Amino acid sequence: DIPPFMLVDGNPAELRSTNAIGLDRRGIAPSVQAEIKKAFKLLYQSNLTLVQAVEEIKKKVKRSEEIDHLISFLEESTKRGVSKKVADDAAFEEEMILPEIPEIGI
Fold it and tell me: Which residues, 6 or more positions from 60, have their beta carbon under 8 angstroms from its beta carbon?
């Protein structure tokens, strides 16, 4: 399963970054977006297990409704588990920049 606020690409799907464009569109404050990026780095750019990463997020990331939602998702048991597959270039990528596509309204 893919955690909330994350962006995946490819087949098989690999995590790329936080979904900055989606967060902007939903009106999520830049300060909250920065905290979501911190959580992403703890989850996917550290050598921590999922349980360890969640504990670090609880300690190091400023809590908000969105962070609480992310933590709840990560602590919930799933049949498939939480994806830890990260694209090779994601370690250095802050956010993806996608072109506007007027034909489909974005």
Answer: 38, 42
